[in-house]
Amino acid sequence: MEIQENEVITLLITAGVGFFFTANRKTIRTLPFHQTLMISYSFYLASLFFTVLEGFIWETVLNYLEHISMVAFSCTFFWWCWQMGVRRETSL
Question: What does the alpha-carbon distance between residue 39 and residue 62 come to, in Å, rounded to a whole number?
Answer without folding.
Answer: 20
